[in-house]
Amino acid sequence: MAEKIRVLIVDDQALIRTGIQLLMARKPDIEVVGQAGNGAEALAMVSSLDPDVVLMDVMMPVMDGVEATRRLTESKARAAVIFLTTFRDDEYVFRGIAAGARGYLLKDVDHRALADAVRTVAAGGALLNPEITARLLPYLGRMAANSPPPPAPTRPPPSERADLLTERERSILHMLALGSTNQEISAALAISVGTVKNHISNILGKLDVRDRTQAALWAVQRGI
User: Fold this and answer.
1) pLDDT tens digit string along 176-196?
2) Which segments of the chain belong to CATH 1.10.10.10?
3) What's the predicted TM-score (pTM) here?
């Protein structure tokens, strides 16, 4: 029997945490291993419980979800983070994705979609659908406008890194930016899921990015 996906729920509202736990308890392949009321508690619990996935609220006292996600990323924690939020939290969501979150969901999401999201990120996928991609564009533009000039490059500049991609890799990168899963890419391009994974690994290496979410952001910034 396959091991269950271990989930940590982080939200400052106990009612929401309890509701999510009850929904996840209905999934035979998912186990909620803990609850935290803020980002600081989440960091301690990730260290002790080693969950596969963290369902992270954005706005919380003591430490918000963005800062907690940034620290988890810096500590190279194994857990994948999904934000649970509303569209009113755009700025925090975008910063959170940049900090290392694998995606976002609205708090009124259907329990089946929530479970599928947990499975997706636990398997190494990401949740970056076309709607949030479109909303990212103006934010990324503002970030670029406010950023200081970059230091002298120690690796190929972005234009040259893009030239390293094959046509197939560019097609897959485009689909990553649209939020496609490995299975969807496999079906669309008529190749195996294993081949898709190999291509994605090559893409990450050529673009010098950490994961598929960062690759998708890289593609969005450059209009791929």
Assistant:
1) 888 888 899 999 999 998 899
2) 132-221
3) 0.65
Least-confidence region, from 7-21, 91-105, 133-147, 171-185: 133-147
Please say whether the beta carbons of 51 and 80 come within 8 A: no
pLDDT tens-digit readout, 65-104: 999 999 999 999 999 999 988 766 567 667 878 889 988 8
Helix (H) or strand (E) holding 211: none
Q: Is 208 left (phi over 0), alpha (psi -120 to 50) or beta?
A: left
Q: What CATH number matches the domain at 5-127, 1.10.10.10, 1.20.1730.10, 3.40.50.2300, 3.40.50.720?
A: 3.40.50.2300
| Cα–Cα distance list, 81 to 64, 144, 158, 164, 184 (Å) | 13, 25, 27, 30, 22
Asked whether the CA dihedral 205, 206, 209, 211 is positive or negative, the reply is negative
Identify the CA nearest to 78 among candidates 102, 59, 96: 102
Architecture of domain 132-221: Orthogonal Bundle (1.10)
Model confidence at 173, pLDDT cuts 50, 70, 90, reads: very high
Q: Is 199 left (phi over 0), alpha (psi -120 to 50) or beta?
A: alpha
